[in-house]
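Treating backbone geometry as a discrete language has practical consequences that deserve illustration. The amino acid sequence and the backbone structure tokens for this protein are reproduced below.
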Amino acid sequence: MRIRPLVLTTESARHPFRQRLPAHVLRSAVRPGKKRSVDDDKDWKLFALSFGAFFTAFYSFIF
């Protein structure tokens, strides 16, 4: 028989797995009053990295 700690469920955790988790796990890391900095250039950085990797691989196979 397993000994499990007492876990109080919250109504916001609708999935059975989330209901079993302790409350500190479900708390959000970002406070509601604070705004996160927006990083809009992730897509461009990923595109440039992917293009550079493909170009390098393709160029190395040709020459």
Observations:
- Residues 42-62 form the longest helix (21 residues).
- The two ends are 66 Å apart (CA to CA).
- The mean pLDDT is 76.
- The chain is about 50% helix and 0% strand.
